[in-house]
Amino acid sequence: RLSIPHGMMDWQDAPPSPSSYIVKKILRLEVPVDKYPNFNFVGRLLGPRGNSLKRVEASTGCRVYIRGKGSIKDPVKEDNLRGRPGYEHLNDPLHILVEAELPVNVVDTRLRQAQEIIEELLKPVDESQDYYKRQQLRELAMLNSSFREDSPHYSASLSPFGNSGMK
């Protein structure tokens, strides 16, 4: 039998593998408000009760922040907050910050996934062709307990999150 002196093989002191190092990366995505001033980008990103944004975060492991002018629902409150510490972003145009604090071997992939989903949501669509918005309205009706089974059914596959509810 091989005898190893106590403490010689203490795995807790072993250096972590390079793929397990946690890194923090932030990606900034501009919202095309200047090209489409009447399109509700914030509402489309948030979805009913913030669920669309929560799904992006859950499926990618990234945090998503809506920042800049128009990121606060109440314009009067936004004007009052502008210039205060922590609200410097209100002087910038509307934008999205995607933050990932993940292992180095997956951080770029997850940021790219979040970017693809968000860019899809930031594409303005004519309301009559906006299947994603219809899906959000259907979800809202279900959350408000006002959903009727005779409502038109839209496939979840029309959502940027795919069939499982997430991309």
Automatic annotation (TrEMBL):
GO BP term, pick one: regulation of mRNA splicing, via spliceosome
RNA-binding in keyword set: yes
The keyword Transit peptide is annotated on this UniProt entry: no
GO molecular function: mRNA binding
GO cellular component assignments: nucleus
Family annotation (Pfam families): KH-I_KHDC4-BBP
Residues of the K Homology domain: 23-123
UniProt keywords, alphabetically: RNA-binding
Protein name: K Homology domain-containing protein
